[in-house]
Request: fold
Amino acid sequence: MKLSGILCSMMMLFLGNMNADAQDIFAEQREGWMQKALGTTPELMHETVRPVSVVKAVKDDAAFQGWRYEPVQETVEAALYERNFKDVKEITLDFGRHLTGYFTFHTKTLSRCQDAPVRIKFTFGELPAEMNTPLDPWKGSLSRAWMQDETVTVIEVDKDIAIERRMAFRYLKIELLGASPDFDFAIDDVRFDAVSSAGQVQTQLNDDAPEIIRQINDVSIETLRECMQTVFEDGPKRDHRLWSGDLYLQSLANRYSFRNFDLVKHCLYLFAGLSTDDGIVISNIFEHPVPHPQYGSYCLTYCLLWNSTLLEYLKDTNDMETALDLWPVARRQMEDAISYVGADGIFNQWARGSFVWLFFDWRDGLDVNTPMQGATIFALQQTYELAKMLGKEKEVASWPSLEKKMRSAARSRLYDSRKGYFVSGEERQISICSQAWMIKSGVLSAKEGQRALKTVLSLNESEPESVKMPGTPYGTHYLIDAMLTCGMETDARDYLIDYWGGMVRKGADTFWEAYDPNDDFLSPYGFSPVNSACHAWSCTPVYFIHKYPELFQK
Amino acid sequence: MKLSGILCSMMMLFLGNMNADAQDIFAEQREGWMQKALGTTPELMHETVRPVSVVKAVKDDAAFQGWRYEPVQETVEAALYERNFKDVKEITLDFGRHLTGYFTFHTKTLSRCQDAPVRIKFTFGELPAEMNTPLDPWKGSLSRAWMQDETVTVIEVDKDIAIERRMAFRYLKIELLGASPDFDFAIDDVRFDAVSSAGQVQTQLNDDAPEIIRQINDVSIETLRECMQTVFEDGPKRDHRLWSGDLYLQSLANRYSFRNFDLVKHCLYLFAGLSTDDGIVISNIFEHPVPHPQYGSYCLTYCLLWNSTLLEYLKDTNDMETALDLWPVARRQMEDAISYVGADGIFNQWARGSFVWLFFDWRDGLDVNTPMQGATIFALQQTYELAKMLGKEKEVASWPSLEKKMRSAARSRLYDSRKGYFVSGEERQISICSQAWMIKSGVLSAKEGQRALKTVLSLNESEPESVKMPGTPYGTHYLIDAMLTCGMETDARDYLIDYWGGMVRKGADTFWEAYDPNDDFLSPYGFSPVNSACHAWSCTPVYFIHKYPELFQK
Reply:
């Protein structure tokens, strides 16, 4: 096995060791897949962007997370470029929109000449509160280093200085930490090389689309654009990773916006090229220094969404060659999932004796047993559909009967037919997630699905503690999707406008990783400033708005 | 006038404006001098140095400035390279000696793989107390950015990362500011590219030189070595500048150590090439981005020491070509100084109606009138000696009589013959500095000089507030020099051993910019950690020790 770098090989060795007895089932194909992945690495497009205004922070309980920015009258030139920075001391610039890329600034001597270094702190942030919340001592569960504050010691003025690290931000605070009494200088020509591989938007809304839909659509597109780099990243501020679950939603949003299917192909091949010796698609991939998967990050829900992404890619492009090339990978993910299904037709997370990670949403205590039963049934349908399109259905002839068995088992074992909704786990947890995946997989008819969702949503109104609601736009996507599947069009539209429109009303330029309308400070990481405010899995309104134009655009 | 860069030209334009009516007296020569300066820029020699031990800080009132380091048993490998840095959290390394240059470190993954940036703070310092004194909020009068603490966000582990800024240090503290819970890493292969243009030491002590003299000699040489870069810098940690006053002392120390006279020539030419339109040698020069003088930094004492440096260079090298080439510059400095001398033969700092900066020492309230009378007389002698060596004495035929007149005026106006010492200014200030320069210039005979110094030193014992003692090794150099000039050999040796040996006993690897045996925290800048602990003007014991071998080396 040869891969594209020492680290990759090392990683594959580690992962291979996870299952030391397994044969390397893709030994012959994997290098070819990786070559195809590397051969489809996109060029980034560059745009130089300059700040549009100077802003001041205002503490305001009515603003999202308690902070907002107000523009200042003075221009950037007057407030910064033409002023002794020892008098300015601190300033915040607004670049007008979310940007991802590389920052450069220039300094110029205003009087006498430099006799000492200057120290300047640059804090880049996506949200006003992120910019105005003290970061230290650090309270987040992720690395403090994700926060985008960098201190630069300027040894020589009168030249350009670039910060090497890629930043994702809209606001930039500049603070003076050290200067000499013996010369004066200004910071001037602040600029940003914004990068994306997205390209031009290929779709447009009907002229009479409501304003809020137009806004939600635009923010969705900006979110996706910022996450489209050399891969579909989960977030340009934090993680910078290609996740297969996020990729699935991004590919759907991409269909109705940039239609950049080469990037989908590139990502599908990366996952295949970095699959483990026993053929598992690892949940997420890092690109640097050479592409490699996160060690041991096996997330079965995401393996199955890779299959759906390949199916959607084939439908979008008719690229049979790629789909045929990658078909063994899809079949392998499905077979792997099937190995968890018992003789009773129920998915069992502990079937192999050790825990398998099943991600559906960031929501503390969410029980994933019933959602996974639905997700496995859905994956059987999707992967079988792919097999048929590729003329491979004979290879998987047993799947339709398995799917039928699982549907039947789901209804008899997990469905509370008296109450009209699915429950999950020994505690019989009631969640939107369970209903959504049972609707998506067709286990519930449209009528039953409506009843299940309406009952659970109304239960949430009367007894909120008894229902697990979605915790993120990712979980909410599957709720909207289920509503549209089972004929709750008006509810879907209202919910989408209320939820994503709520972010827009709170000032979102891009959609946030975590959003609970009732809790501005919700964070999966114990500290909201480390949340990503431009997150791929939140970009799907553009998909719904264009897939259902009659519903959203009139 | 064409110089070697836009900035230079700009600077010269500004400086030209200082004296808008003056003709550009060196218009034709200056470019040639600058070309000769650039043509003699030395190559730096490189040495890779690794830390020798791990140390821990100990608060100790008996230690210099209250802190010392103790070595830890564990090796650098065991304590750092082989250990998860998330467990190490903070460590201080001792590189064993003062170094100037560039730092590189490597990181390696220990478990799983990097999923987030890491943030590490590196603090480089020359002295234990500098490393252990909180720097913020900043109390120094110079730029906070001189302090050598840099925070690095490591976006990619498993590779070398270099800190671009040049550092001068012996100790390095490494602190973890941010890491991910999801992977482990070590910092390994910490190394330093130490640079100097000094070369090999060309002198050695007599075998029976006392141990303290040997130590003082070695520390002097290390101090000079560290300050010898592409120019003779004043200090490698702070200022990084070529000062003509420091150059004079460095050239004397260089004679008895590295004997690298090409570097002296390079520096003499830089000053000439960057002299003002009216021919003034500006006190200090920055090399980057292109050589340029500090705007408006006209220090007449330093102009005259440039002349002495040229004279000493000629004596060391017999390089008549260079000395003849630069003779007009020396004559101009002297003529400029003469313009301050009144008909009464007394140097008048206000002769031109505006203040002229005369630096003799960092000592608050030091009156410089009498010292400058002596320094001008000395410069007349030195520059006339240079003229004679170059066959140029006819050009300056009036100088001997002026010198005689100034000596006479000094004795009649500034000397308290009853008390046997010189006083300075309207307040009749008593200082070592006044006596030292009157001895150096020969105004006082050896016998009178001894009386003056002994009286003032004993007055300092009985009434310390009535005497201005030297505040730095720079001022102390001229005291030792005066003692040796007037036959106080034993006093000179004792004073040198007491003063510079005091630094050695307090742990100096290199000699400090400011040192008062009775005040560890003396600082010209309001905050001792910003002091330079390796300062050119403190390196002259090697000069005395070798110039007077019978006195110091037996």
Summary: The interface with chain B takes residues 7, 11, 112-119, 138, 141-147, 150-151, 153-156, 158-159, 164-166, 177-181, 183, 238-239, 241, 286, 288-289, 292, 294-296 of chain A (CB under 8 Å). Chain A has 18 helices and 15 strands. Residues 1-20 of chain A have pLDDT under 50 and may be disordered. The two ends of chain A are 55 Å apart (CA to CA).
